[in-house]
Give the backbone structure.
Amino acid sequence: MEPLRIGLTIHGKCKSLSYEGKGVVAYGDDVFYVEGMFPGDEGELCIIYKRGGEFFGEIKKLDAISPNRIQPRCKICRACGGCCFQQLDYPAQLEWKRDFVISQLRHFGIDGIEVLPTIGMDDPYHYRNKIQVPFAKDRKGKVYYGFYKTGTHVIVPTDICHIEDKRAYHILNEISKLLESFHIDPYQEDSRYGVLRHVLIRTSFYKPQIMVVLVTNVDVFPSRNNFVKALIKRCPEITTVVQNINPRQTNVILGERERVLYGKGFIEDSLCGVEFKISAKSFYQTNPVMTEKLYKTAMDFANLTENDIVFDAYSGIGTIGLIASKNVKEVISVELVKEAVRDAVNNAKVNHVTNFLAYCDDATKFMVNMAREHRPVDVLFMDPPRKGSDDKFIEATFRLKPKRVVYVSCNPSTLARDLKKLSERYRIEKLQPFDMFPHTSHVETVCLLTKK
Ligand code: SAH
């Protein structure tokens, strides 16, 4: 058998999906991965690249088709790569997400725990409240926008994205036309010429409010005020426009400095009856319909009572803690980013919440201090970033001794690793996977633990 190499054509069958949602194909004792291939698909495949010692292929021709394969809504989903599951029917996506959580638990030797069926969306399209796109100009001078093809800086032109808020692409199309008529050039990465790098749009779910952020390479650009005026005239649904200045050569979309060009500079939205101010840089969950379901489940799992003292670790702009505050004695929230803490304090004021304290600190350090002072905590909410928590945080949890821990996770692999460690002192009661990001391989999970 010829060893795997780029360019090799192979007849293969997909048996399962990898953690990235790619089809896994066996080849001798080895495996390789194929984007857009699903269990049951079989056919001619070609190896196209190697990454981190593993090979990746593409489909040339299929002879047998997965029973779960469907016609995708999006014409460019294969080229764009943002939605690896557009061609997989929705029930199969939900099932894969639950199976993935179970497989990650097993990987860390955790068995026999209840993992509930994934809660999904009734209509899993147009769910995103935040979208950011780069612009470019073709040879004929026509301005277009799109999404980066996975792993590249090639912009795949788009006119409609099936997962973003429907209000966004009308605005993006109008921006394209206005850039042409005002002779404002999109930024080019290689020559570093041009003005507009990205446009970010944030939409409010409950209020008729939309924020447009123009990310520019330079501070001042010609006809800025007239451009904004013309944009508002064509899209009166926009309630605020912010300019963000990012002159650096970087993949990071937003720069440090910003200025409000129109409106208040933020939008407002609400979650579970609590109001939140959202500025250009705030972390805010991107699927408003599912976020409410997720937080409701987190509250149910926590089984809050009026005498409880709640600790909200990795608290962002205070979403979880503020929602919990209505039903408990006191909430202490800790977050590392100072802008987010400022937002959390403001959000408490706006909602007239007086039993909520927000601190800017490392969650672990703060918890160790609280344990040293013997301050009681009944319920710990933890919602860490993708890399999960760590041993020190978990040891601090053991010293703080909350009765219940509710772990909200956006990465089943780090969740399972952390649960293994937590299970030394806590019983893992149940896990509820959520589909916050339909058509992608991302899985969100809420887990309840109780003190042994
Ligand atoms: N619970 C919030 C935010 C979750 S995102 C929500 O649901 O909206 C995770 C947050 O953890 C980010 O805001 C990040 O800044 C913060 N964070 C990361 N490491 C941290 C640490 N060591 N201590 C405290 N916060 C941290």
